[in-house]
Amino acid sequence: MEKNCNIGIATYNFEYALSKLKDGECLARTKWNPQNPLSSKKYIKLQDYNNSSHSFLYLTLTDGDIVPWQPTQADLLANDWHISA
């Protein structure tokens, strides 16, 4: 696990972020709200599909809408992931 400090919060690489998603955490990238990353209303979460073994990632947007999410190459290589409130 790679851990960085960015704007006073612990940030991580995607590999660690994915493990936190599997633990039920919500995650966001500092890049999504650089002025105040801890107040970001945009985050991703892992969701089970109909209580089956199939799961998917979804993104909650700032307006509250929820959409399926697939990471970009930039997301996969980023080191600015943090646990979102």
Tags for this model:
85 residues, disordered N terminus, two-stranded antiparallel sheet, 3-stranded antiparallel sheet, alpha+beta
Summarize the SSE layout with pairings:
Blueprint: E1 3-6, E2 9-12, H1 14-22, E3 26-29, E4 43-48, E5 55-60, E6 66-68, H2 73-77, E7 81-84
Antiparallel strand pairs: 1-2, 3-7, 4-5, 5-6
What does this structure look like?
The protein is of the alpha+beta class and 85 residues long. It has two helices and seven strands, in the order E-E-H-E-E-E-E-H-E. It has helices at 14-22, 73-77, and strands at residues 3-6, 9-12, 26-29, 43-48, 55-60, 66-68, 81-84. A hairpin with a 5-residue loop joins strand 5 and strand 6 (66-68). It starts with a strand and ends with a strand.
Strand order of the largest sheet: 4-5-6
* Whole-number mean pLDDT: 81
Cα end-to-end separation = 21 Å
- Domain count, please report it: 1
Give a brief rundown of this model.
This protein is of the alpha+beta class and 85 residues long.
